[in-house]
Fold:
Amino acid sequence: MRKSWLVFLLSISAYVLAAPVELKVNLRVGNQPLQWGQTYQTPQGQRYQIDLLKFYISEVALVRPDGREVRVDGLALAEFKRDGPTQGVSVMKLDVPAGQYRGLRFNVGVPRELNHLDAGTQQLPLGVNSGMYWAWNPGYIFYRLEGTAALPEGNQKWVIHMGTDAFRIPVRLHDLQTRRVQINIPPGGGGIALNLDVARAFEPGPGGVFVDWRKQSLRQLHGLSPETSLLMSVVYFNMQSAFSLAQ
Amino acid sequence: MRRRPMVWVGLLLGVGFVGWYFWPRSAPPPPVAEPPPSPSSPRILFAERSVPIPEDNPQTPAKVALGRKLFYDTRLSKDNTIACASCHRPEFAFSDGGKPVSTGIFGRKGSRNAPTLTNVGFRRHLFWEGRSPRLELQAVGPLTAHDEMGLEPEELAQRLQAIPEYVQAFQEVFGEPPSLRAVTYAIAAFERTLVSYNSPFDRYQAGDDQALSPAALRGMELFFSEKGDCFHCHVGPDFTDDEPRNTALYTVYKDIGLARATGKDEDVGKFKTPTLRNVALTAPYMHDGSIRTLREVVQHYNRGGEPNLNADALIRPLGLTDQEVDDLVAFLEALTDTSFTTNPALLPPGGQGGAP
Structure:
């Protein structure tokens, strides 16, 4: 009896002592901070700028050293637009017990149970006003990256719109092999900073395939479009390792 | 105690009688054959149908009027050149007359043929692959797509919030400032008024035996016969079952249709059966506008299409003569409703395409 009371009190205290934590994101191109208006090069030498990045983050959980997870409810829409900040941008607020954690996991995307509701009746960050609703398919764009390619015929806009349940991106930033603590949340709360290397999308995939903007059909990577489904898979796998914990 | 066996016998006899009474007889009498339809048989008046209205978007005159203004307003596009009506033109039954694919902002080309909006409020699925469940959500696509109207929700809202007439109208209709969501709700309300049931075929249905030409009458017989076999897919008041089907247009589809959304091999090349109402006004045809004339479409089906593993089971060579093909075309032309394309209530407000 005494033991169950102890567990109850510990649970209550853990809830009461939940610390406010801000999840922040730094956009990177390689290991450099992303700068709007800066021209970068893909590994194949194609020159480009980034104009917009928006993505959903959901099913967040902090992983304790013993492997148990502290799950965080909610879903957030991270938005990065030209002339806005790209470093240390707060994308989600978490309430988690203070303590030490092995790391973090989350998904980039919208959980299946929310992805197929009537978007006309949803509120932000979901709903049609989010700019992420994919009208031809009842579901949302999970990861939306857009930019401009400098091509011989002039600047051309390109987009990568990743969505459909099959392309929800799992991000796992905890060490499965060791119990090494990577995140420390003090009692007063704090922040967890992530780096996101947006250029990972352009890394070549199996057989050397890459996002080649010289081809008009590849300037719009959309879900399961036939000509682009292989490339979408490449981008999808690249994106799984595009996030890292900022040190 | 002694009477119990008698009770059991009685019960058994009762159950036996009930079973005998209700047991189906071995040879039920053959059903009496229905007489074939004749001009004197009762006809259906489709004009009496009413469009289903979603609970969260009740139809009001003010909302319809606002939706009509928005439908014709080019300021809903990034470069102020494209309105909904640019690709859904009233004179072509709200399709994009003569164009295989439409032109969006900055001269960008779309990838699919703009469908007619005739009786669009009755459709259960929207877009060519049928993956949008209702008009309110469908409108988000063209408004935001970068090769159509290309406005971000935020930008669209800011634009409309700078136009006092719109601010007032949205406040009156929705009790809130303009937003993408409210825009789509208003446009959907207007689109539900695009109702067309006054073609020669409808007048014939209403009892005017002279409304259809002899060729159109022969075509109608063929249309609804197993030989012509059009009616299995083009069924109901609007001549569509709203279902996705592969019509064997190609052996290899560049646009994979429904499979783009489902990822399933069996959905490759499936596109929604389009309505045939006003079909004579909506050329060119098929999802990509690749067939120029109605006659060529009928000939495509008459040939049985191209080899395709996903081809609908109903696709096969039909063996229609040239005369029969012409008759079918005559019937399809008799589905044209000119009172729909010239209805002042559906045309640009004030006779102008643009400002509210």
Notes: The interface with chain B takes residues 118-121, 127-131, 133, 135-138, 157, 159, 164, 166, 220, 223-227 of chain A (CB under 8 Å). The two ends of chain A are 44 Å apart (CA to CA).
